[in-house]
Input
Amino acid sequence: MKFRTQTYPTRAAVFAAALGLPVTLLLALFLPDLWLVGAAWVAGILGLIALDVFLSTPIKKMEPQIEAPGSGYIGHNYDVRVTTEFGPGIPPRAPEQRLSVNDRLSVSPALAQAGVGEGGMLSLFSLRTDLRGTAELERIWTRWQGPLGLVWRQRIDPLQREIPVTSDTQMVRDTAAEIFTKDASIGQKLQRLRGDGTEFDGLTEWLPGMDKRSIDWKHSARHGTLLSREFRTERNHNIIFAFDSGHLMAEEVENSETGEGMTKLDRALNAALLMAFVSLKIGDKVGMYAFDEKPYLYAPAIGNTRSFAQIRRVSARVDYSTAETNFTLGLSQLAQNLQRRTLIVVFTDFVDSTQAELMVENMARLLKRHIVIFVAFRNTALDKLITQDATTPEEAAASLIGDGLMRERDIVLRRLERMGVNVIDADADTLNMKVLNTYMLLKARNAI
Output
């Protein structure tokens, strides 16, 4: 990528040159024979500027090398090192560097004073990942003065380096490790549950206390002893996380314990990544789907725990949107993409009855072939509005309106439950574990 260059005088050079103009004017008015002295002053300053350009470090040598993270977690700080090897000769004077980034990142300091050593210099920046998605280091600006301090030389290098910013999967790994460690029997049961499930595993001798319905009479007659069939829970189920990324999901909700603010979409991704990590450990396959006014992301289900890094990278492409969600187009396209029975986990939110009606209709179509977990975010602000003591007519009216909205919402959720949808209505504090527990319960019941 081609860099751009600029050369311009410093303030000191402009001031020195400007100082010669009034001197020349005064000499021309009062001592006309000496006006050339003033002109020589200006010409001398211009000559010194040209000399400073000639003596300064060549622009071609000032090529910066960037050391930046390949990916990041939202809400974390990362160090960026910028090294520039300019070789022997006169070192650059007062070098400065600035790093420009897109809106997913914030950078400090805004202008870094580079430390100069023998044959090179070093600048340090700190990146803060403010939003999840694809962050970009756009360009690096480097400028330095000549040895006389009369001219600035500037080099602008385009970077176009992308950094996928995802949800904090360290939390995912810690929580999953705690689950498997605290109750190892559950992990073993889900990975290979002998005696339950529908997938035939083998025959074993029937013993008193075992279920008589498991006796295989045909093989028992052949071998002259009672044999019992053993089954295990099926593996390699397909799981698709479907994210509504419309404008309602961009609303921030706070964790009551930590006070941390995070969008509904980011919290949904945290819950999905936790369940994805556990699912991959168990042996299921995981994929992702996202839509707002139209579908824009579909990653087919993939398996094994080594795929989790790929799932995490895909999650960075689930973007924020200000558009109204089109449930009809989004869910119907998802149904067309799926060729086999799948557990679909839909993360969404709704407010009005018209939007909810369209959502319910399309959920009914999905249920004809698939299992659906519907995850909605509990509106804690409305809950507080309803339960607070109303001291004014305005507060009483607001509480009454809020109660009506919550009743309509509950009616929609009850309709979904009667249709056979597994409904989760959770706040930010309990969302992760409710989603995971619902999945584990479905696995235990062999409902997938």
Remarks:
- The chain is about 40% helix and 30% strand.
- The first helix runs from residue 11 to 30.
- The chain has a mean pLDDT of 84.
